[in-house]
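Response to reviewer comment R2.3. The reviewers asked that we include at least one raw input/output pair. We reproduce the pair for TetR/AcrR family transcriptional regulator here without editing.
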Amino acid sequence: MTPTDSSAESGSAEPAEVVPRARRVPRTRMTSAERREQLISIARGVFAERGFDGTTVEEIAARADVSKPIVYEHFGGKEGVYAVVVDREVRTLLTMMQSALTSGHPRELLQQAALALLDYIEGSSDGFAIIVRDSPVGSSGTYVTIIGDVVSRVEDILIEEFKDRGYEAPLAPMYAQMLVGMVGSTGQWWLDAREPSKEVVAAHLVNLAWRGLSGLEQEPTLNET
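Raw output as returned:
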């Protein structure tokens, strides 16, 4: 017997190193409510990035690492999840606008509306990008819905202002549309521009609108060209 054989039999040779198996960390199983919220969050990002027409159930499912039937189970399809996303954004912005409109003075009211909209755009760009796009038939809310609600608030205040100044009160709804439309259109522009700051944008909006209001003619006419 060779020395090598002897040492092997006596167990003096160092044992081979045992490499432990990598443990697979089990994926945490979501509750139905958690899965729904995850899908809404992911869909919101996809809709903001690609728009309604460019978004597919396949992509939402892939980003959530689930099968397509899971999306259908929760929302019935792309239209269903889109409606939920839009409804949440509409309610968020509408709440912000309603909370901001506290002053009864038209100049301050316009400033509050402008700043509230720009605050929302700054903090929720994806959401604003979604709600200003054309919505499919049957969607639960649009940007027009929000603007319409603000117009109603402004209209009530302008009616009183018009009466106090001797202007025709029936024209107040039209002026309300003009003022709020100015704010809404500027907000859509600022979504991409982001310059100057929201405070500067709001100040210039109020400057233009209010100086126009303060110099209103009772019977304005167009200049002949």
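Residues 86-214 form a domain with the Tetracycline Repressor; domain 2 fold (CATH 1.10.357.10). Residues 32-54 form the longest helix (23 residues). Further pairs are available on request from the corresponding author.
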